[in-house]
Amino acid sequence: MGFVVDVENKTQVNFMKSVEIGNRLELFVDRFLVDAMENVSFRLHEPVAQPLPASPLPISYTTVLKEGETYRAYYRDYHPEYDGEYEDGNEGEITCYAQSADGHEWMFPDLGVCDVKSKRGGNVILADVLACAHNFSPIRDHKPGVAPDAQYKALAGLHPSAVKKPECGLYAFQSQDGIHWTKMRDKPVITSERFAFDSQNVSFWSEAEGCYVSYYRTWQTPHGNLRTISRATSDDYLHWSEPTAMNPNLPGEHIYTSQTHPYFRAPHIYIATPTRFMPDRGESTDILFMAARPGATAFERLFTEAFIRPGLDPNRWGNRSNYVNRYVVPTGPAEMSIWHSSGIRYTLRTDGFISVRAGAEQGEFLTKPLTFTGETLVVNYSTSAAGGLRVELQDVGGEAIPGFRLDDCPVIVGDAIEHTVTWKDNPSLAGRAGKPVRLRFVMNECDVYSLQFRHG
């Protein structure tokens, strides 16, 4: 088994532009690195439900930030004494704060920020702010040189038609501590003549793009008027570009609350876990998985199927019953978590969204030509007891590089988040750094989740 290079087109292959990955961690959440596959396939991994906590995190347009050893969460709730209409932007909406030491059990501290109390006490950080408590979506601002009083930022607000207030749109907020917030200006920073915003509208500082990026709810798609997602950018968080439609929808799908964010181990890869809404099927919802690269004008959906299904609970088959928080964050050395509106925390192995998988019969895949920096190759992989993995380095023409041939690589068996690939005589990859190579993975009963070249 192996890939054959077309001799007549070998010159073209040799001059194929290589993908520069340096020492970045690369996940197989898209087709960015994979050139050819034989008897292997991409596999979407289902998050695993953990036992319901005694004190779960409420999930209603919720953001979870991990800072050091502390998990900080922001969510929408309602004033317990509010008895009015529950329309978007109503006066009973409040934004609340929660905190956790392990990401599983949550506490709701008395902050003393607002006179208004939630059902859990004094953990309210935003109340009586026109439409903004509906979908307040904070970030930790990682822009270099950000001012001390603007370490945190947030977008929040609704479309004017939703609350019948012409001054509405998305407002920008800032904070020094993530608890006490002020508007950055009195007018909205993002407005739209098209109906939008009535879900969580997310933003972040993109290290890869050198600007702020926002993904927010819009309406129009090539398939008609469907809830969908658009993207805009900004240098200062106040002045935003015109939106670019990302168009992730299939016919009949409404997609919103995208939860797009940089993956914590590879910030040049944007992860999205949106809610899919099917109004013609009892207004049922589920969760999808998508990915995007910096500057991309479309999401890549390797899988159009659900990432998290509604499941056996009848209460999860209605509208607004399947939301997840924004930000997938680590909750252990080999684990990352997503929180669901049922109160359940879901987990995946680190990097474990999508893998390249081989079954019992041997298969293989080949990367595009790539250039790297470093001396070692590290892979995140898992095999069965009978499975195995070997890696070969090739030149761009498909010839195995001496010292790094398949036969030089001992069979890798086991399960590791970070495993250093070795070859006979333990040659260093330093001599190949900066030169285009291909990686050939030959495997059976094996998943490969990510790879990275490293120094040392």
Mean pLDDT: 94
The secondary structure category is mainly beta
Classify the fold: give the CATH topology of the largest domain: Tachylectin-2, Chain A
Mind telling me the C-alpha Rg?
24 Å
Output the CATH class name of the largest domain: Mainly Beta
DSSP strand content: 35-45%
CATH architecture annotation of the largest domain: 5 Propeller
> How would a textbook summarize the main sheet?
8 strands, antiparallel
Q: What would you note in describing this structure?
A:
- The protein is mainly beta.
- It folds into two domains: 7-45 and 355-454, Jelly Rolls, CATH 2.60.120; 48-349, Tachylectin-2, Chain A, CATH 2.115.10.
- Helices cover 2% and strands 41% of the residues.
- It is built from two helices and 32 strands.
- The protein has helices at residues 10-14, 160-163; strands at 19-22, 26-27, 34-38, 40-44, 48-49, 63-67, 70-78, 93-100, 124-127, 137-140, 152-157, 170-175, 181-183, 202-206, 211-221, 224-234, 244-245, 254-256, 261-263, 266-272, 275-278, 284-287, 290-292, 329-332, 335-339, 345-349, 354-358, 363-367, 370-372, 376-394, 415-420, 438-454.
- Strands 2, 3, 4, 27, 28, 30, 31 and 32 form an eight-stranded antiparallel β-sheet that branches.
- The longest helix is centred in the N-terminal third of the chain and has 5 residues, at 10-14.
- Residues 1-15 have low confidence and may be disordered.
Topology readout:
Layout: H1 10-14, E1 19-22, E2 26-27, E3 34-38, E4 40-44, E5 48-49, E6 63-67, E7 70-78, E8 93-100, E9 124-127, E10 137-140, E11 152-157, H2 160-163, E12 170-175, E13 181-183, E14 202-206, E15 211-221, E16 224-234, E17 244-245, E18 254-256, E19 261-263, E20 266-272, E21 275-278, E22 284-287, E23 290-292, E24 329-332, E25 335-339, E26 345-349, E27 354-358, E28 363-367, E29 370-372, E30 376-394, E31 415-420, E32 438-454
